[in-house]
Amino acid sequence: MNDSVLKPVSPSLPADLRTGDQAIDRYLAQINAHLIGTRSVRRMTLVEARDFVVDASIDAPDRGAAILAATGEFGSPEDIGSTQRRERHGVLLKIALMAGPAFALLMLLMQVLGLSAPGGWRSLAIVFVWNMLAFGLGMGALFAYAIGTPAPSKTAPATATGENGFVATYLDSSRMLCRILFAVFGSMQLLLLLSLFGADPTGIFNAWAWPLTAFLLFVNFKNVAAPLHALRFRAEATPGTLRIHRLTGPLLLQRRQIVTVARPSYLRQAFSMLYGQQHRIGWRADDGRLRHVTVSLTPDVINGGRLRAWLEAAADENAART
């Protein structure tokens, strides 16, 4: 792959990442020039580099020498860029291999149930491969090169609960996207329901066979429910508690109650009413029974990585005590 196509036209260092120290900022700008993807994607690596160098040099007697040593330990801009490009290409491949075949199988099943399709098995095979490649590579490129993981914010008032607390929630842009998705897929779901009685005012779905309509109603239900779950989601963590706001209501967990954190199987995630990157939290209720709650920590969740680390640390601490 020609990585130069994926590099920004003007890879200037974002103002909010500048430290005011010329040596550090110059190092960050050199790294930035070797990275690929949008600003949010490149930001992940830049924040990591900035925090490493600043933390390693902030209290040093000879700060210039400490910065030089820290930048040497973190790596050359060329090596960092090479590592970041390999990681991003790996994300592309992983998502393409998961999303492409799943979408192609979905479309093939819809064609079997009555969706108009080209005749002949060869034509179906060509369409299947096209759907797999186009959707898989498209989604892979979106998540690899366009959507970044927000870094935990230490100062943003919207994500602070106190000196030792933090809040995990979706970005404002993601919440707006969820509203749009709900409006689009909610309208589609309504039209599909009306079409079962031949009453779709648009006439688009009236001619569909009922098995196809019923199948699409089932598949589309997640596209309606998942944005609602995302809009409602908010997790407030303190050293000893975690309050999760969900579509079904708030849940308050004590840190000592959390015993397991695991990724659900792909099948469970596929039939879940949440978006991807789900984590199933096992917690011990007051009656001693083990119960579970699932949260989705997609890349656009502010402090999502911090919440995951909090949960895993709590589970490890409680496992060590039992």
Keywords:
single chain, 322 residues, PH-domain like, 9 helices, 54% helix
Summarize the structure in words:
The protein is α+β, with helices and mostly antiparallel strands. It folds into 3 domains: 15-75, no CATH class; 87-148, no CATH class; 161-321, PH-domain like (Roll), CATH 2.30.29. It has 9 helices and 8 strands. It has helices at 22-33, 39-57, 63-74, 77-112, 121-146, 172-195, 210-232, 266-270, 304-321, and strands at 166-170, 234-237, 241-246, 249-254, 258-262, 278-284, 290-296, 301-302. The strands form 2 sheets. The protein has a 5-stranded antiparallel β-sheet with strand order 4-3-2-1-8. Strands 5-6-7 form a 3-stranded antiparallel β-sheet, with helices on one face. α1 packs antiparallel against α2 (39-57), α2 (39-57) crosses α3 and α4 (77-112) packs antiparallel against α5 (121-146). The longest helix is centred in the N-terminal third of the chain and has 36 residues, at 77-112. The radius of gyration is 24 Å and the shape is globular. The relative contact order is 0.09.
